[in-house]
Amino acid sequence: MLTRQLEAELSKQRILEIYLNVVEMGDGIYGAEAAARHYWGTTAANLDSRQAAELAALLPSPKRWGPGSDSRAYRKRVEIVLERMEQAGWVLEHL
Predict the structure, then answer these.
(1) 53 vs 25: CA distance, rounded Å
(2) What is the pLDDT of residues 9-35, one digit of tens each?
(3) Which of 39, 32, 37 is nearest to 16 (CA)?
(4) Can you spell out the DSSP letters for 20-57?
(5) Which terminal Cβ of the chain has fewer Cβ within 10 Å, N or C?
(6) For the segment 71-88, what is each residue's pLDDT rounded down to a tens digit?
(7) DSSP state of 30
(8) DSSP secondary structure letter of residue 23
């Protein structure tokens, strides 16, 4: 019921925005802004494409892996996210 109400009242972009501001992105790290500051000492708006992909790739298991992780599965997810970002035209800098 809550999902239906959210979708009726908010755009998909706004729902994603809210989610990215509250989702756990590491042990005790909530939101993309806090994660950008924690992992790279910068704002979410100033992340490069690889950093953004690393944040997106950690979401299934933020306490197990993330930026700096030596997990092959995590590194593979990062590459998949980067490929999809490139296909969508979201990668602006050369990686």
Answers:
(1) 13
(2) 999 999 999 999 999 999 999 999 999
(3) 32
(4) HHHSB-STT-BSHHHHHHHHHSS-GGG--HHHHHHHHH
(5) N
(6) 999 999 999 999 999 999
(7) B
(8) S
Instruction: For each of the domains in the chain, give its residue range(s) and CATH number, in order of start.
Output: 2-87 (1.10.3810.10)
What pLDDT does 63 receive?
86
pTM confidence score: 0.83
Name residue 55's amino acid: L
Please check the confidence at residue 52 and state whether its pLDDT lies above 80. Answer: yes
The angle, 0 to 180 degrees and rounded to 10, between the axes of the packed helices 32-40 and 49-58 is: 120
Taking each continuous run of H as one helix and of E as one strand, the counts in the chain are 5, 0
What distance in Å separates the CA atoms of residue 42 and residue 35, rounded to the nearest whole number? 9
Distance, CA of 93 to CA of 50 (rounded, Å): 10
Q: Hey, what are 17's tokens?
A: 């925005």
